[in-house]
Amino acid sequence: MANGSIAVPAEPKGKLVDFYKQESKHKGIWSWLLTVDHKRIGLMYLLVMIGFFLTAMTFGFLMRLEMLTPGATIMKPQTYNTLFTLHGVIMVFLFIIPGVPAVFGNFIMPIQIGAKDVIFPRLNLLSWYLYIAGGIIALISLFTGTGAADTGWTFYVPYSIRTTTNVSLTVFAAFVLGFSSILTGLNFITTIHRMRAPGMTFFKMPLFCWGIYGTAWIQVLATPVIGITLVLVILERTLGIGVFDPALGGDPLLYQHLFWIYSHPAVYIMILPAMGVVSDIIATFSRKPIFGYTPIAMSTLAIALVGYLVWGHHMFSAGTSDTSNVIFSLLTFLVAIPTGVKVFNWVASLYRGSIEVTAPMLYALCFIFVFSIGGLTGLVLGTLNTDIHLTDTYFVVAHFHYVMFGGMGILFFASLHYWFPKMFGRMYNEKVAKLACIIFVIGFNGLYFPMFIAGYLGMPRRYYDYLPEFQVYHVISTVGSWIMISGILLMFANLLRGLRQGAVAPANPWDSTTLEWTVPSPPPMENFEEIPVVTKGPYDREGLIESKVKHQLKH
Amino acid sequence: MSQNSEVVVHQEHVHEAHAHVGEHVHRDDMGSKMGMWLFLFTEVLLFGGMFILYASYRFIYSDAYKVAAAELDTYIGTINTIILLASSCAVVLGIVALQRKNKGLCLGFLWFTQACGAAFMVNKYFEWTHKIHLGIYPKGPALADMSEGEVVFFGLYYVMTGLHGLHIIVGMIFIGTIMVMIQKNKITHDNYQKLENAGLYWHLVDVIWIFLFPLFYLIH
Ligand code: HEM
Ligand SMILES: [Cu+2]
What we know:
The complex is a heterodimer of chains A (555) and B (220). Chain A is mainly alpha-helical and 555 residues long. Chain A contains 16 helices and no strands. In chain A, helix 2 packs antiparallel against helix 3, helix 8 runs parallel beside helix 10 and helix 11 packs antiparallel against helix 12. Chain B is mainly α and 220 residues long. Chain B contains eight helices and no strands. The complex binds protoporphyrin IX containing FE (HEM) and copper (II) ion.
């Protein structure tokens, strides 16, 4: 196989056993728990992550149920506080941030660059264990001590210092998760620099790898700051060192700075690899090379870079100086430029393409629509005077769900459908997958769009109660949550069914051009029998021999 | 020395003997060094967050900082600085010794490094216990009477030097592990990237102290 980008399905050649069946020196469950194979580690992340996602989704569902009517509907205020904190902590630290890198970065990226594994496989396993440890500590913090944390996922001081709930342990969980994230980032940067196959130059990498690369840098460069900040919160609670506590001379605003120096770039940790996925999917299903490969790759780095310098937009109303507010507002607008570059390039890639709307493509298209709403409302919040009106209202809740859930979340689902055949060697039911997607997106907009209006009219966030005039929006929103969750459950059920009784997937069911589709589905233990030599661009279709096995799912 | 590792890289990077199927034991010295540098970067940022706090509060409480800094013992600080510089030098000499196939001398230098690390910690112990004895610690009786700026100064002092001390201990464990590996000939004159990585880590711990020392002990 001299040419890396030819998409002929390579049927297993006898001695290549797929990685599920490959014998290793450990047996049974240990062949998973002690594995250093990037694919197995990726799958272990996936399994645990779906568990966390469903848990946090249930919390979201309960919150929405509470908001159905004014006053206490099904819970007390303290329960509500706990729920939105845990919902936020789990979604942010356990699902959205590690999601695409840990699962698909692990499983797919090494194959896409033509490598046998990541460069530090044992470190990779350690990252997974740290992730599990962080998750378990977070869960323990729920049921031990003096009650689950009620600070919101931002852990703002001084409340996080004063509250008697079990904040220290929750914060420590976030710290451990940060460690996991750093090590993954470090591993991926080094892998991409050192392990690319011969001929795979940086500008021949699929855009997904670019996304992973940009994200890995942010993981390495931003996470340590939150690490130390959270440690300081714990020390402040236990010892009273005074660095954040205003009663002792500390400045709470400095906490906010340090928190957002990480947590804004974290938004890009979530979205960059997801944007890489959408590029791969659109190129595949438009049957043409992506439009503007280099601008998309470069805008990834530009977003990573500028995204670093905008954290102050979370503090416009916190008492920072006017000068810094103006500068942060300006920089925030600047991020919209590389983001716009991406969106326009995706749309241009569709132009005159031979578009095939499969389930992954449908998710990707929905992403462009939903994410644009999220991005544009972000500009409203980046503008100083409108932000003063909208900050800490439901408008913000709607905005970040549109970008985080509508962005990374939808693309997580898209990736799941796109790479499902590769990962599990089976197909799912295409019709049901599309139906689930449509139900999901309708529910999504039903759930979050009314929040824009309610927020604009003054409905504050993090309240378990509200004035009767807001009820109509809350009712629509709660009904939306039911529809959306049905969509999600249908989607998972369909995937699960595909896993057990779907048709066997060929090596390249979608006619894709990137390297992972040249190896069997599921791939053998070390991915390639022989490391490929790459001579073409990632989306080059010229000379592409049409795969004989056409989409099996279509029959 | 970097030439040396380049050669190794070209030989080893492309293919590697597989002890077990599924155990991808690649040897890539450049990659290993790159990973280490990235890790050091994260350490710099970790301390960077605290240096930002130090600077901001120095701006807010400049007078109190001066008063508080006068409490610190410049002599102990200076001695510890010299100890760390000497230990860093010893690590470098240890690497060179190993490259020249002198395993015994290499281990000797690393033992010296360990001794320096221990001496540093002993000094730190006496410094801290003396302060605590005087009641200068978070929520301590003496600190309670001081101004807000001094409270913050000592808060940062304990956290930053404490975290630095923790890094010294980690560094000593790191170097200790490497010494065992040298003893067992797992690290040799043509395969010493792990030793170099341990050295890099030790230098970083040293460099951080080079910043902590003037900021806390010298500026009055
Ligand atoms: C699955 C269905 C989901 C539902 C029903 C839901 C619903 C909610 C609700 C009702 C709130 C509280 C609003 C408030 O009172 O301020 C909230 C907050 C939040 N949600 Fe979701 N959400 C869902 C999914 C997600 C996802 C996928 C993410 C991550 C991308 C996410 C991230 C957050 C965050 C960060 C908060 C803020 C928590 C805080 O205020 O500390 N949610 N969500
Ligand atoms: Cu932000």
